[in-house]
Design a protein that fits this description.
The complex is a heterodimer of chains A (146) and B (166). With 146 residues, chain A is an all-alpha fold. Helix content of chain A is 75%, strand content 0%. Chain A has one domain (27-143). With 166 residues, chain B is mostly helical. Chain B has one domain (41-165). Helices cover 83% and strands 0% of the residues of chain B. Chain B contains 8 helices and no strands. Chain B is extended and about 70 Å long. Classes of the chains: A mainly alpha (146), B mainly alpha (166). At the A-B interface, helix 1, helix 4, helix 5, helix 6 and helix 7 of A face helix 1, helix 5, helix 6, helix 7 and helix 8 of B.
Chain lengths: 146, 166
């Protein structure tokens, strides 16, 4: 047996073990979020947060996209974006916010394995995303004003 | 029936996306095992020295960090779990990689999708990378300060106890 097959087999075995671990985390969480969506709870939360969107220079409807991004994933968020018309700048701001803070139920669970606790992870990403969104909106406004 | 369908479909979709992850994860882990075997890591990560030393991370952090940045947090974390099990990285380093990756990960795929919908890809990548570097550096500073403080306090307490015993 050539020398390089041993590390290849070891790598394959490891990846199967890790994939099983991922299945155990991701499948139940995504089912739970799908249920929340099914009972309209995701939509209700979206309406509640609508006034805050003006901080980012985004229309109220964008809240649904942000929340879908936070709770489900960026694909769901982009699905919601197609329903509203955004300028290139608004789209970039939205993308930066969702890019930093998305798929929280799944990703914070995964990040826990690095030692990053779930509440810390959520707080860190939400704060960073909000600060980035407000700053980008400010920068865009300043550039246009000047 | 609707709910059963929903759970079934969600499970199926999730398994499919994990299948997609598998397509990347399996070859990457195999390549990493090969790289370990032939000790390629030292040569490969030499180019990241400046970046890593700014973040106060050891060279061993390069692989999980790079994998997470380019392929996603799931893959990055999977490698981190693997590194943690083998005791290659310290707790502090794992946490810092976790912080960096939670802010900036899978920048190729994410940025591509956002760009399709009209976002500016350069702004996206620069903002996320700069923020991730800044926050990880600040976290490293705070963490080390806190640890040093704790160690100093422990030593002081220890000395006091010894003095009392005398």
């Amino acid at each position: 047996m050539p020398a390089f097959t041993e590390p290849l087999i070891k790598g394959f075995r490891k990846s199967i073990g890790l994939l099983w671990l991922l299945i155990k985390i991701i499948v139940p969480v995504s089912c739970l979020v799908a249920l929340l969506d099914f009972y309209g709870i995701v939509d209700q939360i979206a309406i509640f947060f609508t006034p805050a969107m003006s901080l980012f220079g985004l229309p109220g409807e964008a809240a649904i996209s942000l929340l879908l991004g936070f709770l489900v994933n960026i694909y769901a968020a982009m699905g919601a974006v197609t329903a509203i018309s955004l300028t290139a700048q608004q789209m970039t701001i939205l993308a930066v916010i969702i890019g930093i803070c998305h798929e929280l139920p799944v990703e914070t669970m995964i990040c826990r394995y690095t030692g990053l606790r779930i509440p810390v992870s959520i707080a860190l990403r939400l704060t960073t995303a909000v600060v980035a969104g407000v700053l980008l909106n400010l920068i865009y406004t300043l550039v246009q004003g000047g | 029936m609707d709910i059963i369908n929903l759970i079934f479909n969600t499970t199926l979709q999730t398994l499919l996306s994990i299948g997609k992850i598998a397509l990347i994860l399996i070859p990457v882990l195999m390549v990493i095992e090969l790289a370990k075997h032939y000790q390629v890591i030292e040569k490969f990560t030499g180019k990241m020295k400046g970046f890593l030393s700014f973040l106060t991370l050891p060279e061993e952090a390069a692989f999980p960090l790079l994998a997470g940045i380019f392929f996603g947090i799931v893959l990055g974390s999977a490698l981190i779990i693997d590194y943690a099990r083998e005791g290659i990285l310290k707790k502090r380093d794992l946490l810092l990689i976790g912080i960096y990756l939670s802010i900036s990960h899978s920048i190729v795929e994410d940025t591509f999708i956002f760009a399709v919908f009209g976002a500016n890809p350069a702004v996206l990548i620069i903002t996320r990378t700069v923020l991730a570097i800044m926050i990880t550096r600040i976290a490293a500073g705070l963490f080390d300060h806190f640890l040093r403080h704790q160690t100093a306090a422990a030593t002081e307490k220890d000395q006091t106890v010894k003095a009392v015993r005398k």
